[in-house]
Amino acid sequence: MKLFGIKTCDTCRKALKELNNVEFVDVRSDGISYDLLTRAHAEFGAALVNTRSTTWRGLSDEDRAKDPLVLLQEHPTLMKRPLIEKGGALFLGWNEQVKAALG
Question: Is 12 a catalytic residue?
Answer without folding.
Answer: no
